[in-house]
Design goal:
The chain is an alpha/beta fold. About 30% of the residues lie in helices and about 20% in strands. The longest helix is centred in the middle third of the chain and has 20 residues.
């Protein structure tokens, strides 16, 4: 059920402030049966103290058994039914980086990849190159490829191994499958039309030609010598967060995709100094803008990317780094604070998973709670029970006194 119309009717403006912290991919699994997850293994004294003053529970971002992408995972946290409000990763990245992306265009999220001599995927992320290396390779592609089959092709750097392609021309369609096989040791997939329509057929042909041309242009590169395409998508239109919830929302994130998600629902994307590995810039942005907004979405990425890399110890370290920053967030005294994830990314799986994520809720109107730490096991004991992602926003609004009574 789409709750947005009901919440629009019930929401009211108040002076209270809500802070939603998303630790991307925070949920994990033990390395060995009976062992700790990344959260349980982390030394988190500040989170432990906060958990003992808060209510905890588990949250399934999208649906039991489904491993969500970051797009549906986040939209669910924002209260948008991810089965109704659909958006491709290409569109999110394009919006996030401010690409020239118009109605009728098709946006594609690309991964630079390493292919072996047989054309098999050796590394889906080409060793996670620096942004500067990404820009160098993108410049090569810009110079070599501007048009295919009458379709204008534009390249943009996103970050590390990620780039964006914008296709512009008549009769294009987002109804095309990805070319990323999501595993190594196999060749890239062929883009396939999802419908019999001419637009779907044409877009698939162009993307397959583009894959071949990129391999030709980058044949002399030692590591970045191929591309995998994901999230082929047109530009969507969603109800504005500010209109639905009567909030003045702001986003603090570094990665373009998450800024794109926030922009898509109408959040103000605040500038952040520094890089993702030094998230103090995000705390500074939050502090400097605290008086201007009443809803903040604060995103931390590295708990996800370290999980995707299969680096258990480094994911533990990123959790501990957030714990070190937590007192600065608490010093702002948000009326309602929520800490959760958009999905789980267990290091042992090196991928997004279907497992629920822990949810911590701190506010003035809480019942007794027996959870003592912000971990998966402790959250399962918490008083919030087990929620779906779309149930989070009504809960935050209610605790902040921003929802009127429903019905007579």
């Amino acid at each position: 059920m789409d709750m947005l119309p009901i919440l629009t009717e019930l929401s009211q403006k108040t002076p209270t402030k809500i802070l939603l912290v998303v630790l991307d991919g925070v949920g994990g699994l033990p390395q060995t049966p009976g062992g700790p997850t990344e959260l349980a293994a982390a030394h988190t004294p500040n989170l432990d103290v906060l958990a003992q003053k808060s209510a905890l529970g588990l949250l399934t971002p999208v649906y039991p058994g489904l491993a969500p992408g970051s797009g549906p995972g986040h939209l669910s946290l924002f209260g948008y039914d991810p089965f109704k409000y659909l958006v491709g990763r290409g569109a999110l990245s394009a919006i996030g980086i401010g690409a020239d992306f118009k109605d009728g265009d098709v946006a594609v999220r690309g991964n630079f990849a390493t292919l072996d001599a047989a054309g098999l995927v050796k590394d889906r992320r080409a060793g996670r190159p620096s942004d500067a290396e990404n820009r160098r390779v993108v410049d090569r592609l810009k110079a070599a490829i501007q048009e295919l089959e009458g379709v204008q092709v534009s390249f943009y750097t996103e970050s590390e191994h990620r780039f964006v392609v914008i296709l512009r021309g008549e009769g294009l369609s987002e109804q095309v499958s990805d070319t990323d096989p999501q595993k190594t040791g196999v060749p890239p997939l062929q883009a396939e039309p999802k419908t019999a329509g001419a637009g779907s057929q044409r877009t698939a042909r162009v993307l397959n030609q583009l894959s071949e041309r990129i391999r030709e242009v980058l044949a002399d590169e030692p590591q970045i010598n191929g591309a995998l395409f994901r999230g082929i998508s047109e530009r969507p239109r969603f109800p504005l967060f500010s209109k639905v919830y009567h909030l003045t929302p702001a986003c603090i994130a570094s990665y373009p995709m998450y800024k794109g998600l926030a922009s898509l629902v109408g959040m103000e994307v605040l500038p952040v100094e520094g890089v993702e590995d030094a998230p103090e810039g995000k705390v500074k942005a939050l502090q400097e803008n605290w008086d201007k907004y009443d809803f903040f979405y604060l995103h931390f990425k590295k708990t996800d990317s370290t999980g995707e890399d299969g680096n258990f110890e480094e994911k533990v370290h990123k959790v501990e780094l957030f714990d070190h920053l937590l007192p600065d967030l608490l010093a702002l005294k948000p009326d309602v604070l929520a800490i959760t994830g958009d999905h789980s990314t267990p290091s042992v799986l090196k991928a997004h998973s279907w497992h629920p994520v822990p949810l911590l809720l701190h506010g003035p109107y809480l019942r007794n709670d027996t959870a003592r730490r912000f971990t998966e096991d402790e959250a399962a004991r918490g008083s919030l029970g087990h929620l779906r992602g779309v149930e989070l926003m009504p809960l935050l609004l209610a605790h902040a006194g921003k929802l009127q009574k429903y019905g007579a």
